[in-house]
Design goal:
The protein has 197 residues and is of the alpha/beta class. The protein has six helices and seven strands, in the order βαβαββααβαββα. Helix 1 packs across helix 6. Bound molecules: flavin mononucleotide. Flavin mononucleotide binds next to helix 1, strand 3 and strand 5.
């Protein structure tokens, strides 16, 4: 079995739910399994160290999780049109992987959740791709053959899955958002499997 890393940050749970559905899509591909990881919150008291195991949810990611993965799905809530600081903080610790080109040639994809429909889903998704391109990763979106993209009334973009969570982040994923998460995970895993052979 090869691992696809589903790495996300979520404060209120919406991005975490998306991550679960992306992981299910990954596991629809024979020979591929999802390794789900998160990152700790950060505070202005930087370098404060968290326990390695959070109170709930998946473990915190390590550099080894990234180095060993066959592909990466990276998810973040939108914050001011960009990814959340805890995820960026983790990415900023990956210089050693970058120096060794450890992620170069691996497929990657991104997903996000927002409070409002025009609150920056696309800007977040596109800007999340930038550090992955620096790492030499092969970026995958969602093709319009996933016909849900043609009729979106909530989340769902060709740049990656997205979710309109509403002001309190409590809206459940629509059926279309859910299908797009799964399709994205499956597409990533299929690409990772092809590239690994
Ligand atoms: C500091 C901060 C900034 C935010 N910026 C945006 C934004 O630019 N656009 C938007 O639509 N939602 C914004 N939100 C709302 C979150 O993106 C939204 O609640 C998201 O669904 C949270 O995901 P989570 O449940 O995985 O934590 C922001 C929330 C916080 C706390």
């Amino acid at each position: 079995m090869a691992d696809v890393l589903v790495l996300y940050y979520s404060r209120y749970g919406a991005t975490a739910t998306m991550a679960q559905h992306i992981a299910r899509g990954v596991e629809e591909v024979d020979g591929m399994q999802a390794r789900v990881r998160t990152v700790p919150p950060v505070s202005t008291l930087c370098e404060a160290s968290e326990d390695r195991i959070p109170d709930a949810g998946p473990p915190y990611a390590s550099l080894e999780d990234l180095r060993d993965c066959a592909g990466l799905a990276l998810g973040s809530p939108t914050r001011f049109g960009n990814m959340a600081a805890p995820l960026k903080y983790f990415i900023d610790t990956t210089s050693s992987l970058w120096l060794g080109a450890a992620l170069a040639g691996k497929p990657a994809t991104v997903f996000t959740s927002t409070a409002s429909l025009h609150g920056g889903q696309e800007t977040t998704l596109l800007s999340m791709m930038l550090p992955l391109l620096h790492h030499g990763m092969l970026i995958l979106g969602i093709p319009y053959s996933e016909t849900d993209l043609l009729h979106t009334e909530a989340g769902g973009t060709p740049y990656g899955a997205s979710h309109l969570a509403g002001p309190d982040s409590k809206k459940p994923l629509t059926d279309a958002e859910l299908r797009l998460c799964r399709a994205q995970g499956k597409r990533l895993a299929a690409a990772a499997r092809k590239l690994a052979t």
